[in-house]
Amino acid sequence: MAETPIRFGILGCAEIARKVSRAITLSANASVYAIGSRSIEKARSYAESNGFPPSTKIYGSYEAVLDDPDVDAVYIPLPTSLHLRWAVLAAEKKKHLLIEKPVALNVSELDTILEACESNGVQFMDGTMWMHHPRTREMEEFLSDARRFGQLKVIQTCFTFAADAKFLQNDIRVKPDLDGLGALGDAGWYCIRATLWAADYQLPKTVTALHGAVTNEAGVVLACGANLVWQDGKVGTFNCSFLSNMTMDITAIGTKGTLQVHDFVIPYRENIASFLTNSEAGFTELVRGWSPLPSEHEVMTHLPQEVCMVKEFSGLVGSIKQGSSKPEKMWPSISRKTQLVLDAVKESIVKGFVPVEVLSCSS
């Protein structure tokens, strides 16, 4: 029997929603059912310009989407400052929740959202798309291989892009009342998630923001970085920025091997992605080169990573609707750990780049 598609309602007309609505359309187990904006004219124009199905319900408020009994799940791409209100209300209306990152302004807000999801039995997942690419699973296999990779010792991540003057002046990600976490929340979220992913989601003991963080006149971070230290001696470093050329790197170094990927957030190509591995590398005779040379691994996919995300989320929601399972707790747990580290970085910046214990940010 064919699986009944999960009916999505979209809150707002954000640019990223164009990509995710396309992913919903391309996913066999999901459909765009409704969109709501503060203006019904804006919602209608957005739906038409992005090729939404003619049957899409058009609403002039977010509340109307949440009040529609036929909406199974909502996608929330609103500014981070609005996530708490609308995510909690969505959960209370029994709508499953796919929410853009950063998921909250701090872990206290996120805990309120997650408590609402848990008490109402709805699935929570953030919109970190690269986590769902089949390449990610293949990279995990290498990192977990004691023979080829060994134990993680160092993890370095970077996500930067050079925003233009219009972005730096007007984008919501540089406005303290809308997305006050700036580059830390937007690009740094990916770096922190990748760092935790490589460390099998073990939280670091301390986080210290790097000197040289750049903020705009309103105090919003435009560029920053941090060092992370684990109890067992692992170390990590990340950099994120709106001011540097586009770079999306992960380098994970183990006792026996190294993993490198240069396009982890958004692959260079939609249908194929690669990564490099090297195990027990050394020098050739007279130190004239490396042996063995790094191996490049290519991973094909028929579905873009955002479609894989929607498909996985919708599958979880479908199982809950059928009564065969309860909400998956892994995804909210990963989001919370990412938020905890992000909070620690922000606290370190505010306090003058001092070390901050991660768990001290959990209250």
Automatic annotation (TrEMBL):
GO molecular-function terms, A-Z: nucleotide binding
Record Pfam families: GFO_IDH_MocA (PF01408), GFO_IDH_MocA_C3 (PF22725)
Coiled-coil regions, chain positions: none
GFO/IDH/MocA-like oxidoreductase domain mapped to chain residues: 145-259
Domain Gfo/Idh/MocA-like oxidoreductase N-terminal: from-to ranges: 6-125
Gene3D superfamilies: Dihydrodipicolinate Reductase, domain 2, NAD(P)-binding Rossmann-like Domain
Family note: Belongs to the Gfo/Idh/MocA family.
Name assigned to this protein: Gfo/Idh/MocA-like oxidoreductase N-terminal domain-containing protein
Biological source species: Nepenthes gracilis
